[in-house]
Design goal:
Helices cover about 25% and strands about 30% of the residues. The protein has four helices and ten strands; from the N terminus they run βαβαββαβαβββββ. Strands 1, 2, 3, 5, 6, 7, 8 and 10 form an eight-stranded mixed β-sheet that branches. The chain has a two-stranded antiparallel ribbon with strand order 4-9. It starts with 5 loop residues before the first strand and ends with a strand. The relative contact order is 0.25.
């Protein structure tokens, strides 16, 4: 199994709606309207998670897929290999501490289906990006039949 690329040793705060959303839109950090909507309408709290939390980046091709495949198949194969899906709270918090990201890189989190649904009832998964000198937290659709390519990367949680 691969080594973790990001380890959350402790949380500096617990409330994503008040403190988190403010920090995610301060300085070099920016969020999408969908992230803002989801955080404002859910009760996300980091209190229920034990640290350390170890996260790993995995390419779809490293899971054995050579052609575009559905998200549900990616999740199934990753879980079989011993990776866990990432709770949305952990994914959101990670944007604030993952600062070694290369410009132009966009990585999606493997979050449980329907754990991040906007007020229009559209399911999302978060993605981290770095561009134009900013660290972004945006979203991508999270339908079981959404298609991803072998070059795409996902962040999973190590057990």
């Amino acid at each position: 199994m691969k080594n973790s690329f990001l380890v959350i040793k402790k949380f500096k705060f617990y409330d994503l709606k008040k403190r988190g959303l403010y920090l995610l839109n301060k300085g070099k950090f920016k969020t999408s309207p969908w992230i803002d909507d989801i955080i404002k309408n859910k009760k996300f709290s980091l209190k229920k998670f034990q640290t350390p939390v170890k996260l790993i980046k995995v390419k779809v091709k490293d899971l054995g897929f050579k052609k575009p495949t559905e998200l549900k198949n990616i999740y199934k194969k990753a879980i079989k290999k011993g990776y866990n899906l990432v709770p949305p709270e952990i994914a959101i918090y990670s944007r604030l501490i993952y600062k070694k990201q290369k410009t132009g890189e966009w990585i999606r989190f493997a979050t449980p289906f329907y754990s991040m649904v906007d007020s229009d009832k559209v399911p999302h998964l978060p993605k981290l990006g770095k561009a134009l000198g900013y660290y972004f937290l945006e979203t991508y659709w999270s339908y079981p039949k959404a298609i991803f390519h072998p070059k795409n990367q996902f962040i999973f949680k190590l057990k």
